TrEMBL record, chain A:
Record InterPro entries: SoxD, SoxD_sf
TM ranges: none
Name of the protein: Sarcosine oxidase subunit delta
Xref: Gene3D superfamilies: Folate-binding superfamily
GO MF term set: sarcosine oxidase activity
Signal peptide: none
Annotated GO biological process: tetrahydrofolate metabolic process
From TrEMBL, chain B:
Subcellular localization: Cytoplasm
Key words of the record: Cytoplasm, Nucleotide-binding, Oxidoreductase
Organism: Bosea vaviloviae
GO cellular component, one term: cytoplasm
Protein name, as recorded: Sarcosine oxidase subunit beta
Domain FAD dependent oxidoreductase: 33-380
UniProt GO BP: tetrahydrofolate metabolic process
Cross-referenced NCBIfam families: soxB (TIGR01373)
Major place of residence: cytoplasm
InterPro entries documented for this protein: FAD-dep_OxRdtase, FAD/NAD-bd_sf, SoxB
Gene Ontology MF term list: nucleotide binding; sarcosine oxidase activity
Lineage, opening ranks: Bacteria, Pseudomonadati, Pseudomonadota, Alphaproteobacteria, Hyphomicrobiales
Length: 91, 416
């Protein structure tokens, strides 16, 4: 499997580390309820099909990417920076 | 027909023309007392024990493919009960005892072979961890022996003892562990359940769950609707997809695990051996192929096929442990979809929906558990209370903090 890194080009998946689902957002620490933390830490959608997931390009640009991949075929639709920088902002 | 030496002899004399199919190819009836979704080892065992232990035989097992096409035919056939934690040990030992009597119980030759499972250690710390595990096993009445390097060498002399990056120091041996012919487990349970009146329905995919007032009433399938008082999910790899039909999320991710078999060779290795310095394990099938595997690929997948990096990693581990295997060709490799739960342990429990039961989260250790999984799941379904050896496998343990973290690697499935 090759991941099309937006900074480095298509690279072997071995250069990357997988973190999983890109959608869950960590509840705000002091305000978070136990139920919300449980949902965030443990529960997963785990879809068969289109899936947005986080990969870290540790052997390349060191950027976190959101990769959109089909979990049934491993076909990758898109890979984009996890936090897009604003135009003109310092890198 | 009951299988026996006499029936074999009679068929031999009759030219083997009288063998009947091992189970009926049943069409689904409109309604059942219990509907088991998933015709793998766990689902078939559940149906069999519902009928044989609890007298509930108005049961159907529905399978989207054919019997043996899922994980029960995609594993590496190893059985063992070398677990550490109190929530696990009695359960897996129960499975081992059921394996030991399985063939007589279901009247089917499953080729249960107690050839011994040897976990190698390569450091002082790993030896101490295995000594602790062995002690925990023996305290729970499970057999375990801690071997030093020369005892291991006497058993398996052909490994690399001299120049390895992680030299073998010894191993933890469970002599009662071993392997079982996996397809025969599926076929044997299917036949035994069928003989007690269970309908085995193949090529029947569930497309929806019918729920009224918080209670499950039936399923929609590719072969029409089926009503049931109780519905039991045993669909490892696809548990999240089934529970999503009931609006439930699970603490589970699906990952692919690859396995391999070499060309057939003369008997080389008697035991099941695991390589403690990497994730690699190997045994030899009765046909002669070396059966081996390693890590999961480590990202969500429903593809039932893997990718090359893990293949390379497995081959490197194989060569590090046993350089001689470099002369063999890999005949084939395949992938199965694992229900990776967030603590690496299974779930056998009610769901919050009345009448809906869940058997899931076996990670890559489901095959060895097959009989006990079916036994305990049938107990839960029939009596609505957990079996004494499976009380820790609760669905709510993640919310309550009672996780069973056997490998101590935390709540991320790709770390198990």
């Amino acid at each position: 499997m090759r991941i099309p890194c937006p900074h480095c080009g298509a690279r072997d998946a071995q250069e990357f580390t997988y973190l999983g689902d890109a959608n869950p957002k960590r509840p705000d620490g002091m305000e978070a309820t136990e139920a919300a933390m449980f949902e965030y830490v443990y529960q997963r959608d785990n879809p068969a099909g289109r899936f947005r997931e986080l990969w870290y390009h540790g052997a390349g640009c060191h950027a976190w990417l959101v990769v959109t991949r089909d979990t049934r075929t491993h076909a990758i639709e898109a890979a984009e920076p996890a936090k897009p920088t604003k135009a003109g902002a310092a890198a | 027909m009951r299988y026996s030496a006499f029936s074999l002899l009679a068929q031999t004399l009759a030219g083997h023309k009288g063998w009947k199919p091992a189970w009926r190819d049943a069409a689904p009836k409109p309604e059942y007392d219990v509907l088991v979704i998933g015709g793998g080892g766990h689902g078939l065992a559940t149906a069999y024990y519902l009928a044989s232990q609890h007298g509930i035989s108005n049961v159907a097992v529905i399978e989207k493919g054919y019997i043996g096409s899922g994980n029960v035919g995609r594993n590496t056939t190893i059985i063992r009960s070398n677990y550490l934690l109190p929530g696990n040990t009695p359960f897996y030992e129960h499975a081992m005892k059921l394996w030991e009597g399985l063939e007589q119980d279901i009247n089917y030759n499953a080729m249960v072979s107690q050839r011994g499972v040897l976990n190698l250690y390569h450091s002082d710390a790993q030896r101490d961890a295995y000594a602790r595990r062995g002690n925990a096993m023996r305290l729970a009445g499970v057999d375990a022996e801690l071997l030093d390097r020369e005892q291991v060498r006497a058993m398996v002399p052909f490994f690399n003892y001299e120049t390895g990056r992680f030299p073998i120091q010894g191993g933890l041996l469970q002599r009662r562990g071993g392997s079982v012919r996996h397809d025969a487990v599926a076929w044997g349970y299917a036949r035994a359940a069928d003989r007690r009146g269970v309908d085995i329905v193949q090529n029947c995919e569930v497309t929806g769950l019918a729920i009224e007032n918080g209670r499950v009433t039936g399923v929609e399938t590719s072969r029409g609707p089926i009503k049931a008082k109780k519905i039991a999910l045993a669909v490892a790899g696809n548990s999240s997809r089934l529970t999503a039909m009931a609006g439930m999320r699970l603490p589970i991710e699906s990952h692919v695990l690859q396995a391999f078999v070499s060309e057939g060779v003369k008997p080389l290795i008697d035991n099941v051996v695991t390589y403690g310095a990497g994730h690699f394990y190997v045994s030899q099938s009765d046909k002669g192929g070396l059966v081996f595997g390693g890590d999961i690929d480590g990202y969500n997948s429903y593809a039932q096929r893997g990718n090359l990096p893990v293949i390379e990693d497995v081959m490197e581990s194989a060569m590090a442990l046993w350089p001689g295997v470099g002369r063999l060709r890999v005949l084939r490799h395949w992938g199965g979809i694992m229900d990776m739960s967030m603590d690496g342990s299974p779930i056998i429990d009610h769901t919050p929906i009345d009448g809906l039961y869940l058997n899931a989260g076996w990670c890559y250790g489901g095959f060895k558990a097959t009989p006990a999984s079916g036994w305990c799941f049938a107990h839960l379904i029939a009596r609505d209370e957990p079996h004494p050896v499976a009380t820790a496998f609760r669905l709510d343990r993640f919310a309550t903090g009672r996780v069973i973290d056997e490998k101590g690697v935390g709540a991320q499935p790709n770390l198990h």
